[in-house]
Amino acid sequence: MVQGTVNWNTQLDKEWLQEYVDDWVSFYRKHTKEGKLASYIPILGKANPHHLGMAIHGKNGMIIRSGDVDTPFTIQSISKVISFIVACMERGVGYVLDRVDVEPTGEAFNSIMHLEMKSLNKPFNPFVNAGALTITSMLEGDTATQKLEPIYMLFEKMLGYRPSLNQEVYQSEYESSARNRAIGYYLIETGFLEEDLEITLETYFKQCSIEVTVDDLAKIGLLLACDGEDPNTGEEIIPRQIARITKALMLTCGMYDASGKFATYVGIPAKSGVSGGIVAVAPPRVRNQQFPFIEGCGIGVFGPALEDRGNSIAGIRLLKHIASQWDLSIF
Amino acid sequence: MVQGTVNWNTQLDKEWLQEYVDDWVSFYRKHTKEGKLASYIPILGKANPHHLGMAIHGKNGMIIRSGDVDTPFTIQSISKVISFIVACMERGVGYVLDRVDVEPTGEAFNSIMHLEMKSLNKPFNPFVNAGALTITSMLEGDTATQKLEPIYMLFEKMLGYRPSLNQEVYQSEYESSARNRAIGYYLIETGFLEEDLEITLETYFKQCSIEVTVDDLAKIGLLLACDGEDPNTGEEIIPRQIARITKALMLTCGMYDASGKFATYVGIPAKSGVSGGIVAVAPPRVRNQQFPFIEGCGIGVFGPALEDRGNSIAGIRLLKHIASQWDLSIF
Amino acid sequence: MVQGTVNWNTQLDKEWLQEYVDDWVSFYRKHTKEGKLASYIPILGKANPHHLGMAIHGKNGMIIRSGDVDTPFTIQSISKVISFIVACMERGVGYVLDRVDVEPTGEAFNSIMHLEMKSLNKPFNPFVNAGALTITSMLEGDTATQKLEPIYMLFEKMLGYRPSLNQEVYQSEYESSARNRAIGYYLIETGFLEEDLEITLETYFKQCSIEVTVDDLAKIGLLLACDGEDPNTGEEIIPRQIARITKALMLTCGMYDASGKFATYVGIPAKSGVSGGIVAVAPPRVRNQQFPFIEGCGIGVFGPALEDRGNSIAGIRLLKHIASQWDLSIF
Amino acid sequence: MVQGTVNWNTQLDKEWLQEYVDDWVSFYRKHTKEGKLASYIPILGKANPHHLGMAIHGKNGMIIRSGDVDTPFTIQSISKVISFIVACMERGVGYVLDRVDVEPTGEAFNSIMHLEMKSLNKPFNPFVNAGALTITSMLEGDTATQKLEPIYMLFEKMLGYRPSLNQEVYQSEYESSARNRAIGYYLIETGFLEEDLEITLETYFKQCSIEVTVDDLAKIGLLLACDGEDPNTGEEIIPRQIARITKALMLTCGMYDASGKFATYVGIPAKSGVSGGIVAVAPPRVRNQQFPFIEGCGIGVFGPALEDRGNSIAGIRLLKHIASQWDLSIF
């Protein structure tokens, strides 16, 4: 491991980095006003659009936190990463990828059109809603509670605590579910859905309503940066093959229909949600060892004002800046 | 650099690797019969469908060659990588990416539909034909010869010799150009094309008709693995930023509408052409130093029997196998 | 009225016509074997695919019946004509056409794609499912029973009796409703649907499950040929403007995505359903008075073997033949 | 014939009708300001947007003219009616309809998307550009001059004189031909086009650049109202079957993607062009004999300010008003 060759980690370095990060966060907070809160789930529209927070958790134990780091928010589409991982762990990668493709679409996340237009034999990828619902329908168990339990257990292993459901958001999602029901019934008709739609939707809205913080997202990102292995204990929490496929999917499909731009301009696997969260994964790289994070880190961002594709507007700009400053791109 | 810590490079290792690679190439050659030669340009249909060859050029100087390595073939769509690089060098990355997006499409490379359906203000990415023609139209110069000169010069720097045009293939392309003309006129009408279409098409068909070998592709791949810097002399042949953006694009859009699957199952930047060539880039990685190629290598493959998306059928299976055996994935 | 100038109607003529029609029906019955029963509602798959029956009801009182005229069948999509008329009578034509367009689509009747692709502000027309569900949601009443009552009342006026619901077909429709639910939820999300979806669907499936015979369809056709006026009593059953708009819609959109071909080759307003029924309207014409039906008639056809667009295969060929023989085309 | 029973045609009636028509034309001229001149062919943008003129030619010899009736204009897309008729006369209806479908599209007239999206085996209908170019390519002859001669001859028979080409408009069309070239090359690639594209385009742009007046269009409309038979001489100028198919096509596809609305609200076969011309056909009807035109008339309209689909904005409103006042609808 390269780790040994890096003699960074003194208090001085950390303070120096913290200062930079604080500057960047306060600079990009101004950009929040160019974005808009998600509107399709009414309760998300009540967030504070000027919030911006970030946490960076390094493989070497360093943690940098800046901005609005203490506001909890619901995980939303970032949960698609978790349900994909759990489905792969339960069913095997082959089973899952036989039923959901891994191609980027060029379409919005909630498109039905693509399914029909191409007479597809499977949804485009696990991160568009059609694919995510199919994945959720694969989870083992006969009730939402049973299906969610392994998801909660994985969260517990990753975060060190069991996150809780935001009941109010869940209620709001449930009441604004027309589009997802439309997709769900389409999936039933075309034979993709494996389960009763009501159970799938309950599970899906609940997985989306789990409440996290930027530190939680950073921990998840770090675990993926470490190929699923706990950086402290060395325990395999997510099988290596699944962790790596997940990162490939995040890079090609993680940022809605701005995924290509994010891959090009930022260059790290990431997944966003409409609540304004982003989890980003900076794996270890040989290229540049001037910064400790090159050894690998996870980044959690929260900024509920979104650009028109559904990503945190200040969040992606902040990530772009950091990736460029610290040369995080995997390319 | 990690390089120093690797004590590989003895003759023994090379022989041992060569044996493996020979086995794999002869195994996957059997898969060629599941594919089909390209048919849309008549002359490509005359290739030998059972051919399969591969060259691997490592950062550390090691070269492994196996199978049909001496058959020259035209570069076809892989030239889109080169013209994109040259356009970025001539015009600046900002200029180019203002005019061509970097999003994967989910559509075939020669789709016109997408342009119309989404009322796009720019083609989806530089590797679909609409984007590639737009890129070619940006190249400096008033004639095809002037526009091609910097492309030839870049080839010369990368390959150590000036490759030649296959006149017969160029003629065949020119005579089978209806679809590209349809796209070209669509681009004129929507204002994307910067030049006379005839000059753009002549340039484009000529850039596609440049003849290369698997060693040439491996050299190009290695140069990109080294972020554009000549691994022997340290000279910057392609600016670092451009090299890295190019790799991001190859990963998200390089393998036609199978790019997502290639990213997931193989996990390295690559670009294919309908003549059966693939250039793949395995950048240095910290993860696994048991194999020398982890320090970075370029891979050139040639296998003219294609799967239904237009990629060498044996080529992608061979790359998948090697990437898995040597842990090349960037994820 | 031209009527007075026609001195046809003797027993002789009728026998002569009957003979012809019998010949045609038995000839086209052979064509039923080129078609297939509807499969998407399981119970429709149990019909006898070799059935073919026709009834012609003339304005002058003449009735010709031939083939399998006594088999009742569910009205299916032909009910879209009736619900459109009732909605226009209840809400006014302006209200209805503000909410549903009247354009042919070129797409299948159950397409969702079109709604999304064009970001439409209203469904394409009242005869695609998206439009028909929107129309049904407009019907007055808080329950399916209340909404259906005016439909039954209109049937009673047109047919002289109150038709009954085929409970078994209704049940089968209800259980095969995934695609219509998908469309329904899409309509909810986009704000087209005015009512609770469950009530709309119950109403819709019930209106589709009303049982009729070819004579019933011929009566409906005749009433439309007479611009909504009862040919015997002169009573206005459907307001003239609504009857005429309905005929225009039937001509442009009545035969699924074969409407253009039906308009060209047959040339009369018609609407088909997947149970194999067709109602056709031959309005009075000045052109050719050699045949009494030129004064106007309604035609009901039943032939459950369908072509690939969902129309009775023998039925449309039979109508084409008759329209040509008797010069029924409105063009 | 009903004709004999009508005792209209006195000077009084004509004056009385003329007064009405003058009122309507001057009322609807105000609507021209809500429209816009065609912009895609530069020279069309030089027309006077406030122009509105109409000519009505009745089967009984009556002629009513009102507004800007003396301004000549190029026939544009209305020529698609003529080339379709000539192709049917030269090749036979079967040959033509085997190669071009007769379905409305729901898409803009210059869509390429539909061809690709549906992998169609023929263009949607003769009045979208893809279909019209295919029709023009079928015309007999090896040069544009040879192909155009039968078109000119048909015009001569219909109008009583040989119309001339507006060379300036032709030049402008030719220079703004990118979209039509895109469609043309798409047609070549998919095998629809029967001829050299340059000859097809020259023929097509020339047929579009033929100059007519509202009286010419009214004569064409009247001839179609009479099923192709000269109302004065009884000579068959267009075979009856072709005339009737043409009217069916005009009704379902004649007014671009507003054809369904025109069929519903106006209810007569019509074809418009982007120069602002409309030819409308009111065939004889039995229904209402209070107005002489019910015996059949042709209507020519010119109003170069267009609505967003490409139809004369004042022209369609004027036609809607007249059709309603005189009960012209064929439904």
Automatic annotation (TrEMBL), chains A, B, C, D:
<feature type="binding site">
    <location>
        <position position="180"/>
    </location>
    <ligand>
        <name>substrate</name>
    </ligand>
</feature>
<protein>
    <recommendedName>
        <fullName>Glutaminase</fullName>
        <ecNumber>3.5.1.2</ecNumber>
    </recommendedName>
</protein>
<feature type="binding site">
    <location>
        <position position="204"/>
    </location>
    <ligand>
        <name>substrate</name>
    </ligand>
</feature>
<feature type="binding site">
    <location>
        <position position="173"/>
    </location>
    <ligand>
        <name>substrate</name>
    </ligand>
</feature>
<comment type="subunit">
    <text>Homotetramer.</text>
</comment>
<dbReference type="Pfam" id="PF04960">
    <property type="entry name" value="Glutaminase"/>
</dbReference>
<keyword id="KW-0007">Acetylation</keyword>
<feature type="binding site">
    <location>
        <position position="256"/>
    </location>
    <ligand>
        <name>substrate</name>
    </ligand>
</feature>
<feature type="binding site">
    <location>
        <position position="129"/>
    </location>
    <ligand>
        <name>substrate</name>
    </ligand>
</feature>
<keyword id="KW-0378">Hydrolase</keyword>
<dbReference type="InterPro" id="IPR012338">
    <property type="entry name" value="Beta-lactam/transpept-like"/>
</dbReference>
<dbReference type="GO" id="GO:0004359">
    <property type="term" value="F:glutaminase activity"/>
</dbReference>
<dbReference type="InterPro" id="IPR015868">
    <property type="entry name" value="Glutaminase"/>
</dbReference>
<feature type="binding site">
    <location>
        <position position="77"/>
    </location>
    <ligand>
        <name>substrate</name>
    </ligand>
</feature>
<feature type="binding site">
    <location>
        <position position="274"/>
    </location>
    <ligand>
        <name>substrate</name>
    </ligand>
</feature>
<comment type="similarity">
    <text>Belongs to the glutaminase family.</text>
</comment>
